[in-house]
Amino acid sequence: MADRALGQVFAVREYRTVWIADLLSVAGDQLARVALAVLVYGRTGSAAWAAATYALTFLPAIVGGVLLSGLADRFPRREVLVVTDVARAGLVAVMALPQVPLAVLCALLVVVVLLGAPHTAARGALLPELLPGDLYERGLAVSQITGQTAQVVGFAAGGLLVAAVSPSAALLLDAVTFLVAGLLFRLGLARRPRADAAPRSPGRDLLAGVVDVATDRRRRALVLLVWMVGLYVVPEALAAPYADQIGAGPAVVGLLMAADPLGSVLGAWLFVRFVPPRWRERLIGVLAVAAGVPLLFTALVPPVPVALLLWGVSGMASTAYVMQAQASFVRATPAAIRGRAIGVAASGIVAGQGVAVLAGGVLADLSTPSTAIALCAAAGVVVALGGALAWRSASADDHATRPLPVTT
């Protein structure tokens, strides 16, 4: 019954457009991440450099999210989606040119990530409008499941493609996916007026978005729990160094990077299929803590099959709690300010991942990749415990006075 309920979202034509465009972009992005990891590690032989480049696919979002996410409220959201996708297609195409200096490659990557901030905010703010009522949470679950599946395919295919052809080929394919996604948004979405009737300057957008999140106890706790998920993403960033540590090759890098998203697919499906709606919010903190436990065993330097299992189980728990936290956050945010609020929250997620993987790379150079992954996981468990307690307290107070709707 739950599976059929999830499928109801595909009856909405505009959601199908967003869904297809997302699949293309996500798969292309994972191809690019594998290509960059192999390219940079191959040039430098440094885990820190490989992790730093991977971090650049996340870290600049803290600037873009807080300063640019307001564009999703100040301009029609369809136009924001189209323009950002086309611009990113051109930039990634330049990155695919042979012999691009590493400094130029990093600079282009920063701009690509910056443009992703208003795109993410526009998409996140538009989705509840396309899927009213409890269809929104179903659509979010479907997007999580299929998006993570696209990551698995992208990572696995990326490893094989880089091994068989070149990193430049993977980057060029990523550029094509951006271009096609932009075309789909332009043709498949209706034009809607901007959401904010009184648009602010970027500085006021920043202040309004931060204040809106910081002054609400429930959203503040949810944001903390979601931001710290970056500590559980470190294995993806260190997949190439870890493969080198155990004597594996480039194709294995893609498989290792695919372990977390594959677990995410299973986690999202199992969570929606078997966890009753009344229990989902209560499990956010528990799952946030549980997601870090399997990664602790990476310190034992397990072989590829065991590492895939451990990293996949972590992905199952992390995606389940993040998915429910996102749904609760969006439902608690008014539509007129949803773009900038989502932008602030999303920028923290991406930036947190960037900081975590950068720290993981430094730790890997100082020790070993396996030790770095385990240390980051331990830090994640500690932070998640604090966030879980804050969420429990805020949720209990809120339900005593103003409970959120519970979907069935």
Automatic annotation (TrEMBL):
Entry's transmembrane regions: 47-68, 89-117, 160-185, 222-242, 248-271, 283-302, 308-330, 342-364, 370-391
Keyword Cytoplasm applies: no
Species of the source: Pseudonocardia oceani
Topology class, membrane: Multi-pass membrane protein
Name of the protein in question: MFS transporter
Alphabetized Pfam families for the sequence: MFS_1
Subcellular location: Cell membrane
Native organism taxonomy: Bacteria, Bacillati, Actinomycetota, Actinomycetes, Pseudonocardiales
Keywords: Cell membrane, Membrane, Transmembrane, Transmembrane helix
InterPro entries in alphabetical order: MFS
